[in-house]
Records
---
Amino acid sequence: MEIMKRYYETLAATVISGLNKRQMEGYYCKTPKEAVELALSLLPKQPTVGFGGAMTLIQSGMLDALKADPSIRLLDREAVQSAEEKEDVCRSHFSADAYFMSSNAITADGELINIDGSGNRAAALIFGPKEVFILAGMNKIVPSVEEAVSRVRNTATPPNCIRLNKQTPCALTGACSNCLAPDCICNQIVITRRSGKKGRIKVLLIGGNLGF
């Protein structure tokens, strides 16, 4: 365990260096609790906050913390019922002070790779919210963009499709078939190689395995 802790710290330092040169802010937190506390401390006062679907936000306790803070106006698509209402909430995220999400994969050189279904999460990452907070376990780090895309398709997407009850080939086989199925959630592939606005994207790396 001690060796893995040192490994995570060493690798995180490399990733953070890559993020910084790409105008993104990188942080390393040993535990999910540290990441949640840091993220809350970086928020402006009485912020309007949106979030994208991410197991990491649930597993880390970040989503519960956002919901429990009375000073935060949370734009929660899970709190509405109809598809139209959910879409309206997702659109409102573009004017939020902060947006929370994870990243499907991050290269050791600081590039973010995300594959999205409806595109709401990737769109908010690219433009709209004043700040974007990405929480990601060290299991999301890969050497290259090519390996990142492979990781998302073969490691992250199949369990996500099972979780979301999607009728896709990967939900049945556990492996990507590069499908065009009606339930496909691999519709947008977004590579963020640099933030156009310095410091807008903040990446909080967490020492451990979180999310898919």
---
Amino acid sequence: MDPWISIIIPARNDAKALRRTLSYLQALHCLESAEIIVAASGDKDETEDAVAGRGRVLWPARSTRSALMNAGAAAATGEVFFFLHADSLPPVDAFAEIRRVLRNPRIVGGAFAHRFEERAWSLRLISWINRRRYFLTRNYYGDQGIFVRAEIFRGLGGYRDLFMEDLDFSQRLKRLGRTKVVPRPVVTSGRRFLTCGPWRAFSFVVWLLLLHSLGLDTQHYVGRWDALGERNLQD
């Protein structure tokens, strides 16, 4: 029987976080109704060892996050796609929450609330500020665990290959119907923020959001953001 939900995880040289996330996912309620697809780039041996048979691993030709997620979605067979970062942990009853939301046929998708794993006061305040933003705008980031009906995702053509692809996708998604924020949080590592300084990273995100909102190009900032991620992986 085909799975009801497909968990799609883009993973780029982050085997340590991926191993932990996949171990955590084994405790999700009703995991038997799901398939797990890891769309990966980077070190094959470390990634395969981290997955350890707990999901299907794909190696797309292109390694941008959007390309990885689109490749995972192309191979997925679920009625619902649930995109999860390699360092993000959803609530154990995430599937029940998604089912509850999607019982309303007018709702096309949504995301979870967000909380950083680390308890630094600065990260807690940033999460509080961010919470007001996405409940008001229904614009979501990838570390919130975006979910969408499969036919809607295909109709939208998936993620566009650009920086801030998650924000762009959620904006296009809400034009097709209602979206919903599940108030239960996806818990995500704040490594990137702590490495470069929480307020410096937050200011950078706000700057990118402003540029995106004004319709200006953000592509040349990709290298700076990825560089922060690479520093995290080395720590």
